[in-house]
């Protein structure tokens, strides 16, 4: 998602494609905009007419005509007002609808990106892309876009009228404005860069704020408030400087328009007088022309304001579109129509020459892994930290695709299906994962469990806890399953969060379960109940557990020992524990954890 | 609590006053520049008129002109334009700087509060909401500042124009000036109708940001459960609510803008209508009427400029009202002026009758907790889930303050210590590891003055040196947001190294070694005892929340916590013999660990 710097037009085209809602009803809105434009042009002219024909009529003021003209004018003003109002309302509705659609699609797309992509982005920065970057667009779309069109209209009308008065002077004015055209192009580029930086800095600020808020306990425990504040100040300061830099360019844009207008005015007076002396134009024409020049200059000024807003909006737009344009590297094959469902019945796992690197040229996290896991058996993956256990789990659940080889699910009886062919709807229903840190949403216990299977009633959720042997724990909560868990589950202990996460996996009832065993401890009594409950849950299911505990390895049907990205040992605990190899060492170290309590329950 | 309806306009004006009071210098410069711009705008119209009379018409009349006259024309037009340009530059720059300074200032104040306010406050405020407060609410609060100096400059233009009007024809001026009360009335109604809508829109904005933040945070869970669509719906629902809110705002704004645009035109027409009558009755002459009508057209722009500011005020107030509670929030942890004893060994710790309860909770988390930890000893805190262990751990390093009772570090109440004193003496490793989006080195030192050798030594103690060496850039490898590029065990080791490198006199581990090998854990504790800074006979004090027998076995004493109370203390063996609950818990865990 590193920003492609497309030109404004290309960005707009991409943007319009991303916002189909925006085009709906646009013709009517533009029709109203034209009425509004006409009104804005007619009103000053009408006032001029009242003065010229009514008040300064050759035979003295013609009051009847003045009254009539004033009433007509008032009607035009009101009509214009109504047209502007209707246009505004329409515009607000279509743009806000389009932006809500854009926000939603960008948000949804972030979830389509693989975990690798998501991790590469900072939360605060991602949040800014669906919030403030989109907000940035609304000002332009509701105000700038129409104003731009209106100004263009005014410009055309003014030019036409000027031509009627004097083609020579009109050409002169146009020539004066040609350099401005080039200048504007140049400024537009600089503005695009300047506003791009501003939007990026906003993302930085949000990321820094997010970090200081989420890391609040660490900041306090280590007394690094000042350091964190300094970091925040720095990002805020950088944002401020980017804003001021952009403002400098903006000011330069306006000034250049003003400067050219002055030159045009001076030139018209001088050349006009010379033309007049040569007998080409009359004094009246020249005076009228000077008035027309102001009508020509005003929309040019407005246009530069619009240009500025446009670059600002485009900067936000690019960031949103960058999200939308990032191809998900782990794709749902259902999107292309070639998807298959997983075969019915129990699921086994097969890895064929699987290798994985987190980045091109990086040390392989996994290499040449070839293995078949039989359905309905439990497997424990053990190994040092960083040996590739988690990578293996992510490949089996298709959170990532292997960089080499392939992963298949199925069984010899029902056939094997490459994971890349499996529709996500089928994959996520049949394959479940309990991550190490089971994130909880700021809702009730029941809501969090229901996340595994929507539509469950509170009673069913309670029943699920009973099945896991956690009935007494639930009853001990203030409001049972209706107890709120707090932000990220903060009002529960780490152990309690795991209970909820496991219940969530339980109700999802997958055929293949991948467990990244939590490392923080659960209340031992609960831990024991949970172990029993997991037994019930894993019964009849294929289970792959990234084990941090000896007991888990001991209880598994088979143990896979991973070392430096390879599966180096495989077999039942009883076989491995006495064999020469890394498992014996791991086991010995585990044993020490229960030192002082040698008893062992068979 | 929405403010009284009639107060909206007054509050809006006070808010404008606040902006001016905070940035008087920039404001003055910007208004001066706006004034220059306004004056030059009027002057340029006048100059064209004068040039017509003095250069153009004579030239046509006489059929000749002079180079001097033409040069003068160019000079005057360009001169006025240059002054006008100066005005524009000044107005744009100074107004921009004023607005951005206010924004940056308030962002700093808001985020400083985030860092100052206690954790209990944070628990009540979702991260997404706080992001929104620091970003879009602050922006909304000062958005009106950019056109403000222009509007103030416009007031000067209005004063001049009104003066000219009254001088020309007081009666007609009065007719036209009816526009002003109308503008004011329209604005009062607008503010009142707009304010609640704006408040709602800002609230919805925050909620959208909240959902996005939570949902992205939960990315892995969402994905593994295939709930992307559900999340999409949840977000979309709120995004479309926000749309409805913004459309409701748009309806009002959409009506306000054309009204502000139409009023000056209608004023001009009224003047013409009444004026025509006065011309007929001889009350004034046609020339004066034309002048008055022209002057009126000049009023349109300033009135619109003022309209821009007024139109943004309800939004500004809505944003500011959301920022104020953060700025005004109290509960800041007060610090004393005391310094801790700086011994070369472990710190002594005393808890006296400590009670603690979470806001709104019926049951206290801790009640009457009293115990001593001798300097240099290691104490394990053991207890069932929900017994208050983590809260207790937080109290020791003053992450929270007790509701009553006291926590003494070397006999000094931690509340009487200067800020930074406790963290200079004590290190805390929480249950959930938090890494910053920084390098490995930065995450260990946290900006402290530690050499690479010290960092490496700490990483070695935490059994992290090997994997750090294998990272692409070693100590300089960035770990990603919250350490996303590392595994749970790796994150925990870096967090441990962070504590170790500080050579704390008190180390509090809240189940922080669960992901590391027990042998490593023992090595960490040993290393602390035999740290070069500590004489062998004066080791660091360690308080560890633990389950593992291996960990508990390292402790000189075990504190048994049950339902928020210390119900037993003693050695592991003593408690095993005397406390059935303790025995059951420890054995159960041991069985869970080893059971086959």
Automatic annotation (TrEMBL), chain A:
GO terms for molecular function: ABC-type oligopeptide transporter activity; ATP binding; ATP hydrolysis activity. The chain crosses the membrane at residues 64-85, 146-165, 171-188, 249-275, 281-300. Residues 28-312 form the ABC transmembrane type-1 domain. It is found in: Cell membrane. It comes from the Bacteria. InterPro entries: AAA+_ATPase, ABC1_TM_dom, ABC1_TM_sf, ABC_transporter-like_ATP-bd, P-loop_NTPase, Type_1_exporter. This is Putative ABC transport system ATP-binding protein. It comes from Geodermatophilus saharensis. The lineage of its organism: Bacteria, Bacillati, Actinomycetota, Actinomycetes, Geodermatophilales.
Automatic annotation (TrEMBL), chain B:
Its main location: membrane. GO terms for cellular component: plasma membrane. The chain crosses the membrane at residues 27-48, 68-89, 140-165, 171-190, 292-311. It is a multi-pass membrane protein. SUPFAM superfamilies: ABC transporter transmembrane region (SSF90123), P-loop containing nucleoside triphosphate hydrolases (SSF52540). Residues 351-588 form the ABC transporter domain. PROSITE patterns: ABC_TM1F, ABC_TRANSPORTER_1, ABC_TRANSPORTER_2. It comes from the Bacteria. GO terms for molecular function: ABC-type transporter activity; ATP binding; ATP hydrolysis activity; ATPase-coupled lipid transmembrane transporter activity. Pfam families: ABC_membrane, ABC_tran. Keywords: ATP-binding, Cell inner membrane, Cell membrane, Membrane, Nucleotide-binding, Transmembrane, Transmembrane helix, Transport. Residues 29-315 form the ABC transmembrane type-1 domain. It is found in: Cell inner membrane. Belongs to the ABC transporter superfamily. Siderophore-Fe(3+) uptake transporter (SIUT) (TC 3.A.1.21) family. This is ABC-type multidrug transport system, ATPase and permease component. It comes from Geodermatophilus saharensis.
């Amino acid at each position: 998602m590193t920003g492609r710097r497309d030109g404004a037009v290309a960005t707009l085209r991409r943007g319009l494609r991303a916002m189909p809602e925006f085009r709906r009803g646009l013709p009517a809105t533009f029709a109203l905009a034209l009425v509004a434009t006409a009104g804005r042009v007619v009103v000053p002219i009408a006032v001029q007419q009242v003065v010229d024909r009514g008040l300064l009529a050759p035979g003295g003021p013609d009051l009847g005509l003045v009254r009539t003209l004033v009433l007509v004018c008032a009607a035009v003003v009101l009509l214009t007002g109504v047209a502007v109002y209707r246009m505004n309302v329409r515009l607000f509705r279509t743009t806000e609808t389009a932006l809500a659609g854009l926000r939603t699609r960008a948000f949804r797309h972030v979830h389509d990106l693989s975990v690798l992509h998501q991790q590469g982005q900072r939360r605060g920065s991602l949040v800014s892309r669906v919030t403030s970057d989109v907000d940035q667009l609304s000002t332009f779309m509701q105000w700038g876009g129409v104003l731009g069109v209106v100004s263009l209209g005014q410009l055309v009308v003014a030019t036409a009228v000027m031509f009627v008065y004097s083609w020579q002077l009109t050409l002169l004015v146009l020539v004066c404005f040609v350099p401005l055209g080039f200048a504007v192009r140049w400024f537009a580029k600089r503005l695009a860069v300047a506003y791009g930086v501003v939007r990026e800095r906003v993302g930085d600020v949000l990321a820094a704020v997010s970090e200081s808020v989420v890391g609040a306990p660490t900041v306090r425990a280590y007394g690094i408030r000042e350091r964190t504040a300094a970091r925040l100040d720095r990002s805020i300061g950088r944002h401020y400087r980017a804003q001021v830099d952009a403002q400098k360019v903006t000011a330069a844009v306006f000034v250049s328009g003003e400067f050219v207008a002055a030159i045009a005015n001076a030139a018209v007076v001088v050349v006009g007088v010379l033309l007049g002396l040569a007998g080409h134009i009359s004094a009246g024409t020249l005076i009228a022309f000077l008035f027309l020049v102001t009508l020509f200059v005003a929309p040019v000024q407005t246009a530069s304001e619009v240009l500025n807003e446009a670059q600002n909006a485009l900067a936000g737009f690019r960031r949103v579109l960058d999200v939308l344009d990032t191809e998900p590297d782990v794709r749902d094959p259902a999107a292309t129509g070639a998807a298959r469902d997983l075969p019915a019945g129990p699921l086994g796992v097969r890895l064929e020459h699987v290798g994985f690197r987190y980045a091109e040229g990086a040390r392989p996290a996994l290499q040449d892994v070839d293995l078949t896991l039989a359905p309905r058996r439990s497997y424990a993956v053990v190994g040092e930290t960083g040996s590739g256990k988690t990578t293996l789990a992510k490949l089996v659940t298709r959170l990532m695709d292997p960089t080499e080889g392939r992963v298949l699910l199925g069984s010899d009886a029902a056939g094997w299906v490459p994971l890349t062919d499996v529709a996500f709807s089928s994959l996520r229903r049949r394959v479940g994962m309990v991550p190490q840190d089971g994130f909880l949403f700021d809702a009730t216990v029941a809501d969090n469990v229901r996340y595994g299977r929507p539509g469950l009633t509170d009673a069913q959720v309670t029943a699920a806890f009973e099945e896991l042997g956690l009935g007494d724990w639930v009853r001990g909560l203030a409001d049972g399953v209706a107890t709120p868990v707090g932000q990220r589950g903060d009002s529960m202990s780490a152990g309690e969060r795991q209970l909820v996460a496991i219940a969530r996996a339980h109700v999802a009832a997958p055929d293949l379960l991948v467990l990244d065993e939590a490392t923080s401890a659960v209340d031992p009594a609960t831990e024991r109940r949970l172990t029993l409950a997991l037994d019930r849950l894993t019964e009849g299911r294929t289970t792959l557990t990234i084990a941090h505990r000896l007991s888990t390895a001991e209880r598994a049907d088979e143990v896979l020992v991973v070392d430096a990205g390879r599966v180096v040992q495989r077999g039942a605990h009883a076989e491995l524990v006495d064999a020469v190899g890394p498992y014996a060492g791991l086991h010995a170290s585990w044993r020490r954890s229960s030192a002082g309590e040698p008893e062992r329950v068979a | 609590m929405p403010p009284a309806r009639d107060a909206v306009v007054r509050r809006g004006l006070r808010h404008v006053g606040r902006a001016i009071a905070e940035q008087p210098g920039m404001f003055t410069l910007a208004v001066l520049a706006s004034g220059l711009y306004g004056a030059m705008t009027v002057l340029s119209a006048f100059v064209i008129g004068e040039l017509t009379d003095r250069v153009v018409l004579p030239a046509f009349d006489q059929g000749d002109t002079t180079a001097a006259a033409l040069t003068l024309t160019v000079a005057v037009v360009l001169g006025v334009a240059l002054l006008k340009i100066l005005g524009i530059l000044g107005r744009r720059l100074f107004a921009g700087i004023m607005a951005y300074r206010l924004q940056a200032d308030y962002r700093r104040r808001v985020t400083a509060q985030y860092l100052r306010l206690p954790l209990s406050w944070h628990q009540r405020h979702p991260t997404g909401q706080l992001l929104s407060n620091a970003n879009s609410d602050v922006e909304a609060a000062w958005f009106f500042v950019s056109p403000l100096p222009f509007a103030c400059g416009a007031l000067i233009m209005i004063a001049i124009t009104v003066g000219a009007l009254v001088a020309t024809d007081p009666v007609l001026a009065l007719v036209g000036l009816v526009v002003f009360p109308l503008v004011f009335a329209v604005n009062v109604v607008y503010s009142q109708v707009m304010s609640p809508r704006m408040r709602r829109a800002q609230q919805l904005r925050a909620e959208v940001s909240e959902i996005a933040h939570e949902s992205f945070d939960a990315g892995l869970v969402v994905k593994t459960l295939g709930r992307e669509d559900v999340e999409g719906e949840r977000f979309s629902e709120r995004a479309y609510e926000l749309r409805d809110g913004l459309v409701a705002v748009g309806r009002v704004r959409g009506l306000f803008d054309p009204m502000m645009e139409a009023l000056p035109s209608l004023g001009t027409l009224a003047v013409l209508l009444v004026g025509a009558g006065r011309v007929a009755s001889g009350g004034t002459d046609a020339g004066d009427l034309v002048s008055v009508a022209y002057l009126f057209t000049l009023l349109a722009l300033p009135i619109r400029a003022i309209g821009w500011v007024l139109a943004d005020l309800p939004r500004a107030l809505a944003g500011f009202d959301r920022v104020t509670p953060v700025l005004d929030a109290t509960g800041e942890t007060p610090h004393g002026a005391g310094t801790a004893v700086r011994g070369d060994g472990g710190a002594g710790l005393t808890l006296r009758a400590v009670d603690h309860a979470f806001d709104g909770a019926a049951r206290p988390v801790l009640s009457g907790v009293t115990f001593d930890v001798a300097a240099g000893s290691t104490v394990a805190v053991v207890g069932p889930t929900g017994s208050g262990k983590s809260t207790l751990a937080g109290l020791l390093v003053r992450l929270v303050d007790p509701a009553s009772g006291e926590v003494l570090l070397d006999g000094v109440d931690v509340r009487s210590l200067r800020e930074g004193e406790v963290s200079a003496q004590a290190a805390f490793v929480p249950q959930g590891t938090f890494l910053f989006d920084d390098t490995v080195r930065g995450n260990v030192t946290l900006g402290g003055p530690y050499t690479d050798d010290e960092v490496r030594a700490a990483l070695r103690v935490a059994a992290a040196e090997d994997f750090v060496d294998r990272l692409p850039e070693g100590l300089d490898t960035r770990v990603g947001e919250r350490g996303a590029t590392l595994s749970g065990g790796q994150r925990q080791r870096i967090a441990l190294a962070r504590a170790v490198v500080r050579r704390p006199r008190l180390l509090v581990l809240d189940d922080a070694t669960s992901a590391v090998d027990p042998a490593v854990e023992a090595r960490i504790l040993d290393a602390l005892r035999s740290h070069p800074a500590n004489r062998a006979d004066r080791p660091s004090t360690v308080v560890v929340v633990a389950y593992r027998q291996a960990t508990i076995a390292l402790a000189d004493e075990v504190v048994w916590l049950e339902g928020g109370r210390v119900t037993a203390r003693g050695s592991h063996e003593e408690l095993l013999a005397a406390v059935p609950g303790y025995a059951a818990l420890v054995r159960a865990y041991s069985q869970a660990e080893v059971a086959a």
